[in-house]
Amino acid sequence: MLMCRDLATIASDYIDGELSGRQNLSVKMHLLMCRDCQTFIGNLRASSELMNAHSSRKLSNEFLRRIDERVARALAEKKSENQNQS
Amino acid sequence: MATPVHLETEVSLIDALKRGDSAAYETAVREYSSGMLAVARFYLDPSSAEEIVQDCWVTVIDAVQKFEGRSGLKTWLHRIVANRCKNRLRTANREVPTEFSESLEPELANRFNAKGRWNLPPQLQFHDSADTLMENGALSDCLDKHLSALPETQRSALMLYEAHQRKSEDVCNILDVSASNLRVLLHRARQKIFLMVETFQETGEC
Ligand SMILES: [Zn+2]
């Protein structure tokens, strides 16, 4: 039988729909009987959503501008190369 | 979070990149660099990672001419970054991301009794939606703090899993990890955030 600890171990797989049919069923059965695990799954899912809303890195403007400059320089070099060829 | 580029927009963006349109590069740099940096930081220290991302954008100028759009621009860019990082690591000593055999966080694992039942079950429900929780400025700051304290491997895995619409295969290819290792990285990261939000809700402290 699936215990609470087992369920906590595979909880992310359950949330992401990565479990096999049989495993999925045994998690569902457990959740029908166990309030604590219901709360845990709900909270882990909420944590995951919270993190998704927050996870993209804020890039510094300085970093972005440095890339812009390097790209602009490379584009200009390429253009002048092409002009020399034609 | 950056708004996803739609397919049509992506096609015209790629055309503009091929033409060497500098405004298109500025748009693309802002749209994709954050994911690219996540890939790079999975493999390298922060400053080498930034360097690699910059170098990649310069190589994109030529490489994009041969891009046929089979994989989507984002996946293609992520692969370029991953390959560069792997090349660099080949010369250095590669530090392989730790394989965990146990996917439970110790702090959580301690909360079960010998029979595997909850000893210290979760007390509160995080019933609010992510949006409502995010409006709590203190929680949001706390989350920032904890996210930046996550190991880079977990943080990148998590971010890229979402960025690639939860297609494990793409993420595994880019990060060069097995499917089971990816599952562990994701689960570890989520548990840490779970523990953090729980502490915050119970004590109001970060
Ligand atoms: Zn249970």
From TrEMBL, chain B:
Domain of life, per lineage: Bacteria
InterPro entries to which the protein is assigned, alphabetical: RNA_pol_sigma-70-like, RNA_pol_sigma-70_dom, RNA_pol_sigma70_r2, RNA_pol_sigma70_r4_t2, RNA_pol_sigma_r2, RNA_pol_sigma_r3/r4-like, WH-like_DNA-bd_sf
Domain (RNA polymerase sigma-70 region) ranges: 29-94
Keyword match Transcription: yes
Annotated ranges, domain RNA polymerase sigma factor 70 region 4 type: 141-193
PANTHER family the record matches: ECF RNA POLYMERASE SIGMA-E FACTOR, RNA POLYMERASE ECF-TYPE SIGMA FACTO
Protein's name in the database: RNA polymerase sigma-E factor
